[in-house]
Structure to design on (981 residues):
């Protein structure tokens, strides 16, 4: 092989090891005649002594080594154009952190000379790493679990970045750099089992070796050596990148892209379920210390041993500081080593699903639970079994029934809200609802009262920096505002902003005293209704008037559009708002609310809202996309007050219409069915749900039909996202009321906008395996769409395909489905094109139907054609639909007695699958692999061993009645009966 470009191989050892571990590899590589002329071998060594292991320093030490590696590459290999990184054990985590940290600071272009990254026996989970520690260090009996969790999160966040921006990277730029990555495990490795070594990385494999021999090849025929040599060859012949748009480097374009046709985007980093659970909004703790001895005492009480194994409801007026108090509990609990999950109610189903994964539930189990409606039981089984102390917070549960079961009351304790059965658990709820009967007799309801005069005065003085007046003036204003922390905070921010303003304001407000006079002119507080006895109505009025003062002042400045912008934000959900994704053209500039708006004016408006304390800005931890990480929040009381604002009620089409258009613009060209787009949809879904429901099912008097039509389209797209991510319950709750009540907002069930929702309703039934209901709904949709749009319209074809699937999956109706599918494929070829992704999805359904009808050769030919097109268009082999096509091909080959060819196909599918090893897809592929082995003479014992392992893994992660486990057990019992001896 003639190679002109030199390739530099860097070998990185693991924990408690040294460069000596590479002796065998180094000898074989440097004496290999094929590599001698073009490969240089470098040993990267770092200090990792056994005796210095400190769990609480693991993240920092790993990052230190990652930085050392970066320095090594910059100095020792400054002139190298092509670099291959090969690692053993923890060395793989070092390289992952190195890559991720480079990408986080926008230095992705510096990674473009790294052409390959191979890991051997890398503990690709944080817990997997500490299993290796225990194996190495027998004397370490107390691993200090509370100090290990940050490392576990560090591993996860690095992997998410490497998977999304490196493994599945498409462009060479500041925050993305595509590099081939392989992860190998040893079949006899008892320190890092193969399933841990493979982790979430789609490519790699398992070789016959243990943890040490995997990097000590006996000769050049050993699998690990051949893997490294292959990586070197690929690096030597990797194509040179070309500058792309914006000065970056662009990956090769597919034929579909070159022709201007839609092509499949790269998949995301595995699954949505792999994302780490986001931390509570600790950024708001920077607002100042918690005030009030009574509140501090309550915090201490909630953190005590006596508070465990109980539900605690923090109830009180809106603006009384319930969430702030819960956040104080969460922060102190986490600092004390407890696990903390903070669930914002608009994101309830998604967050509870993430808790299940965070507690170790396998993907296959989570998928099944959300499909069958047993998710609540699953999460609570996991919580009660959690060995660590934990705190679960449900914030702003002002509609308590959302925490209850679908067919019962929250007080029943059988929904999302339950009393922990384990002494490790504590549950907190913040809500304005204080009735004991609502929460159940087993819940402890704590009434959060407003602050006393002294504590309120202290808050005012500290927040203004002493600019507002004397202690007595602060006490009087605190009493006047009822001791409500939210009102006090807004008052302090207004006084401070006025005092520091460089702009002349048309206002008498200068300090606490003048602010109090302004409030008095707007609020008529009845005697005896301040302090702890403040009513909800009066408390809301106080907050409303204080906010009104701030907004009036903003309107008198050069930032007059800030008030309108705040009202638009109030049309969205109370969930965090990723404002950078929403505030762009053309929606803002086309709105009559913002004449002459410019980016500079938008920035000034946001600054004004922050200066007057009307919104909180903070950055979400663990979010890779910067535009999604930066969010703002409105307090729920401010949110509710602004929704009742007279201008918002008088001009709903302008305010709510703009909110709808901002979300639609942010999601344009971001297909909700594709995993790469799910992080964006996860951030925007609560707002899409809220604004579409408000426009269509709320009490707004929306005369603008265009806004209602846009709201319907937003609802349809949001339903697609929820269905794609397995959140079928929320999807059904969104779609069904809009279909049933469409006449109330001026639409007919057969209008094309409602047909879009009915199509999604049919998909939900199909995914729930309710085939007869799916067929009934989709049949009617097809008839209506055919009549209105035509038989071969793209929307009609989509419904025809789903209908054909519903029919095909009913036993004995395959021939009927085949006829439908052939006509759909013929139409799709004309409408979308022969190589469009949607066309190939229909062709795959047709291939499965052919196989079910016994026409195995035809099914094989169809599958091969689909795979050829996918390769020609550079679709990643880890794309779920492409993996399913390879599964179909495996069965078609097996049906024809060609088990040896089938083995190669299913092995490659298992290698390329990006889903977790415990996902439904990978488990199903493993079962198919067993069937293939049984078809090869002499491989039955191997098949039995594989099947035993599969049954063992399934038994561990799924319920006994799971269909795949039942099937696998039956086959194993049959094989064991038939085997001799």
């Amino acid at each position: 092989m003639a190679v002109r470009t030199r390739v530099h191989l860097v070998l990185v050892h693991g924990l408690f090891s040294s460069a000596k571990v590479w002796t065998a590899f180094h000898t074989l590589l440097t004496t290999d005649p094929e590599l001698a002329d073009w490969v240089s071998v470098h040993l990267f060594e770092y200090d990792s002594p056994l005796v210095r292991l400190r769990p609480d320093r693991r993240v920092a030490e790993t990052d230190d080594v990652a930085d050392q590696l970066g320095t090594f590459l910059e100095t020792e290999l400054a002139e190298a154009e092509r670099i291959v990184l090969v690692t053993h054990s923890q060395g793989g985590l070092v390289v992952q952190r190195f890559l991720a940290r480079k990408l986080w600071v926008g230095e992705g272009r510096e990674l473009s000379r790294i052409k390959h990254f191979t890991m051997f026996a890398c503990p690709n989970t944080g817990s997997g790493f500490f299993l290796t520690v225990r194996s190495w260090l027998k004397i370490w009996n107390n691993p200090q679990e509370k100090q290990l969790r940050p490392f576990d999160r560090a591993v996860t966040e690095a992997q998410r970045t490497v998977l999304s921006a490196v493994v599945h990277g498409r462009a060479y730029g500041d925050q993305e750099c595509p590099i081939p990555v392989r992860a190998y495990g040893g079949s006899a490795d008892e320190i890092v089992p193969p399933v841990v070594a493979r982790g979430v990385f789609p490519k790699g494999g398992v070789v016959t070796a243990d943890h040490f021999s995997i990097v000590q090849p006996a000769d050049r025929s050993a699998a690990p050596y051949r893997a490294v040599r292959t990586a070197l060859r690929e690096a030597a012949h990797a194509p040179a990148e070309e500058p792309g748009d914006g000065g970056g480097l662009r990956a090769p374009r597919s034929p579909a892209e070159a022709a201007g046709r839609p092509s499949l985007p790269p998949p995301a980093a595995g699954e949505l379920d792999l994302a780490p659970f986001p931390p509570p909004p600790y950024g708001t703790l920077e607002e100042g210390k918690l005030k009030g001895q009574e509140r501090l005492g309550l915090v201490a009480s909630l953190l005590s041993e006596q508070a465990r194994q109980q539900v605690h409801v923090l109830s009180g007026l809106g603006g009384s500081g319930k969430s702030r108090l819960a956040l104080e509990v969460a922060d102190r609990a986490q600092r004390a080593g407890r696990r903390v999950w903070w669930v914002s109610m608009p994101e309830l189903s998604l967050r509870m699903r993430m808790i299940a994964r965070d507690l170790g539930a396998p993907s296959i189990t989570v998928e099944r639970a959300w499909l069958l409606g047993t998710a609540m039981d699953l999460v609570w089984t996991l919580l009660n079994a959690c060995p660590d102390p934990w705190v679960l917070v449900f914030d702003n549960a002002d509609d308590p029934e959302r925490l209850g079961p679908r067919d019962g009351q929250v007080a029943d304790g059988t929904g999302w809200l339950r009393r922990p059965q384990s002494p490790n658990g504590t549950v907190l709820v913040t809500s304005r609802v204080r009735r004991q009967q609502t929460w159940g007799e087993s819940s402890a309801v704590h009434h959060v009262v407003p602050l006393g005069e002294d504590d309120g005065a202290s808050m005012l003085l500290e927040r203004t920096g002493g600019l507002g007046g004397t202690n007595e003036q602060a006490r009087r204003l605190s009493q006047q505002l009822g001791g409500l922390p939210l009102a006090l905070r807004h008052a302090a921010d207004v006084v401070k902003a006025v005092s520091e303003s460089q702009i002349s304001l048309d206002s008498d407000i200068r300090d606490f005293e003048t602010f109090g006079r302004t409030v008095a002119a707007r609020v008529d507080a009845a005697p005896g209704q301040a302090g702890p006895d403040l009513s909800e109505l009066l408390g809301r009025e106080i907050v409303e008037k204080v906010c009104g003062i701030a907004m009036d002042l903003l309107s008198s400045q050069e930032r007059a559009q800030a008030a309108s912008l705040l009202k638009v934000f109030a049309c969205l959900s109370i969930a965090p708002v990723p404002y950078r994704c929403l505030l762009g053209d053309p929606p803002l500039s086309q709105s009559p609310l913002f004449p002459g708006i410019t980016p500079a004016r938008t920035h000034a408006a946001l600054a004004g809202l922050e200066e007057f304390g009307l919104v909180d800005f903070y950055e979400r931890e663990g979010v890779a996309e910067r535009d999604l990480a930066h969010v703002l929040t409105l307090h729920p009381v401010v949110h509710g007050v602004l929704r009742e604002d007279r201008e918002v009620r008088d001009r709903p089409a302008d305010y709510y219409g703009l909110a709808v258009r901002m979300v639609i613009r942010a999601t344009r060209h971001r297909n909700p069915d594709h995993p790469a787009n799910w992080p964006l949809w996860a951030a925007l879904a609560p707002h899409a749900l809220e604004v579409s429901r408000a426009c269509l099912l709320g009490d707004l008097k929306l005369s603008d039909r265009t806004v209602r039509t846009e709201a319907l389209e937003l609802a349809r797209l949001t339903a697609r996202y929820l269905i794609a991510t397995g959140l079928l319950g929320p999807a059904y709750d969104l779609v069904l009321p809009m279909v049933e009540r469409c006449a109330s907002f001026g639409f007919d069930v057969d209008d094309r906008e409602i047909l879009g929702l009915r199509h999604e309703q049919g998909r939900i039934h199909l995914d729930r395996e309710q085939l007869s209901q799916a067929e009934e709904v989709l049949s009617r949709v097809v008839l209506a769409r055919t009549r209105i749009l035509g038989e071969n319209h793209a929307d009609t074809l989509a419904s025809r395909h789903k209908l054909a699937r519903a029919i095909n999956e009913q036993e004995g109706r395959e021939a009927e489905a085949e006829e439908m599918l052939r006509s759909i494929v013929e139409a799709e070829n004309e409408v979308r094109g022969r190589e469009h992704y949607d066309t190939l999805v229909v062709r795959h359904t047709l291939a499965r139907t052919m196989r079910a009808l016994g026409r195995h050769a035809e099914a094989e030919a169809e599958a091969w054609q689909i795979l050829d097109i996918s390769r020609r268009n550079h679709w990643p082999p880890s794309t779920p639909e492409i993996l399913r096509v390879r599964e179909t091909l495996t069965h078609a080959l097996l049906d024809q007695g060609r088990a040896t060819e089938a083995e190669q196909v299913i092995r490659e599918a298992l290698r390329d699958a990006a889903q977790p090893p415990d996902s439904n897809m990978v488990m199903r592929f493993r079962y198919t692999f067993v069937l293939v082995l049984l078809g090869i003479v002499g491989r039955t014992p191997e098949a039995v061993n594989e099947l035993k392992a599969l049954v063992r893994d399934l038994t561990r992660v799924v319920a006994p009645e799971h269909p795949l486990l039942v099937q696998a057990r039956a086959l194993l019992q049959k094989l064991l009966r038939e085997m001799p001896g």
Observations:
- The mean pLDDT is 84.
- The longest strand covers residues 114-120.
- The chain is about 55% helix and 10% strand.
- The two ends are 52 Å apart (CA to CA).
